[in-house]
Amino acid sequence: MSEDAPAEAFYEPLGDGRFASTPATAGPWSPGFQHGGPVSALLGRAFERHEPVPGGRIARVTVELLSPVPVAVLDIAVRVVRPGKRVAHLEAELTHEGRPVVRATAWRIMQAPAHLEPVVHGPPPPALPATTEPFPQWPGVHTGGYLSAMEWRIVHGTFGEPGPGTTWARSRIPLIAGEADTPLVRALTLADSASGIGSQLDHAKWLIINTDMTVALHRDPAGEWLCMAASVDLSPGGSALCEATLADTSGGFGRAMQTLIVDERPPA
Question: Which residue, 5, 76, 129, 254, is the most exposed by fewest CB within 10 angstroms?
Answer without folding.
Answer: 5
